[in-house]
Amino acid sequence: MKKTETKSTVLLQHHLKALRLPTIAAECEAIAARCATDNVDHLGFLLQLCERELLDRERRAADRRLKAAKFPTLKTLDDFDFAAQPSLNRVLVAELLRGEFVDRRESVILVGNPGTGKTHVATALAAQACRRGKKVRFYRVTELVTQLLEAREERLLLRLKGQLSRLDLLVLDELGYVPASKTGAELLFDVISTAYERTSVVITTNLPFEQWTEVLGSERLVGATLDRLTHRCHILEATGESYRLRDAKRRAGRAVRREPADSDDT
Ligand code: ADP
Ligand code: MG
């Protein structure tokens, strides 16, 4: 390589770093070589560089959003077995995965017994929203209530509520136990009310609707919150049995079936 070329390469790398274009910096030489052999003109070369940088930038931003969402474990619908949960409305899940409900600020409520895949589906929907550029935060309800109470103690409640109001989608996992204190319940229902028509909310719960007011309290505050929450919402019900239990039973069944064969061998 000639000395001038080396100097311009070094300078180019420096400028690309200053301009924060890491993908172009990493790939420009290889792409330049390829474009030269393929007879791609200068603008075509520039286009390829910009496309690579943009794609990478979007991927990095999606990764950051997924991290900021704090999902307990990342789940996708690819590893969800719909056949194991036939009661779940598969068509509606596929529609929700497209994410328009987030643009429309609608809510999703997943109701069902423990182990029926509610958290799995809620996480998969919310993670897809992250990949589509939405700001998401996953909370277990008890965790959010604790944070709200602590923030209130430390006079940081406005700040926390400000952070929540900047989200596109708020996941509240495991609504169903009475919050430990009346203040906790009030703070939680205030968050849900504030989200109305501004932020989408995905809630998972094992409480059938008819028990909501009975368990969560039937005071005016709770009533009004639930009214808002259920105004524009999609309901997904999983009435089947627990996936893990089913899995365990199937494994146990296999073991039992194998036993006579094993004893035949002896
Ligand atoms: P829930 O929130 O309803 O209690 P989870 O979503 O936590 O249930 O599911 C429990 C475990 O079983 C998780 O590891 C989840 O990934 C898995 N699971 C549940 N349902 C299915 C399913 N239909 N296909 C694949 N995995 C499932
Ligand atoms: Mg769950």
What's this model, at a glance?
The chain has 266 residues and is an alpha/beta fold. It has helices spanning 3-18, 22-37, 42-69, 90-97, 100-103, 118-131, 141-153, 157-165, 182-195, 212-216, 220-229, 243-265; strands spanning 107-112, 136-140, 169-175, 200-205, 233-238. Helix 9 (182-195) links the parallel strand 3 and strand 4.
Task: Report on the architecture of this protein.
The chain has 266 residues and is α/β, with parallel strands linked by helices. The chain is 60% helix and 11% strand. It is built from twelve helices and five strands. It binds adenosine-5'-diphosphate and magnesium ion.
Largest sheet: 5 strands, parallel
Q: What's the CATH topology label of the largest domain?
A: Rossmann fold
- Strand line-up of the largest beta sheet: 2-3-4-1-5
Helix and strand string, N-terminal first?
HHHHHEHEHHEHEHHEH
- Hey, roughly how much beta strand do the residues contain? 5-15%
Tally of separate domains:
2
Associated small molecules: adenosine-5'-diphosphate, magnesium ion
Q: Average the pLDDT over all residues and give the rounded result.
A: 89
Query: What CATH architecture of the largest domain do you see?
Result: 3-Layer(aba) Sandwich
Helical residues, percent:
55-70%
Give the topology.
Blueprint: H1 3-18, H2 22-37, H3 42-69, H4 90-97, H5 100-103, E1 107-112, H6 118-131, E2 136-140, H7 141-153, H8 157-165, E3 169-175, H9 182-195, E4 200-205, H10 212-216, H11 220-229, E5 233-238, H12 243-265
Parallel strand pairs: 1-4, 1-5, 2-3, 3-4
Helix pairs in contact: 2-3, 7-8, 7-9, 9-11
The chain binds adenosine-5'-diphosphate and magnesium ion.
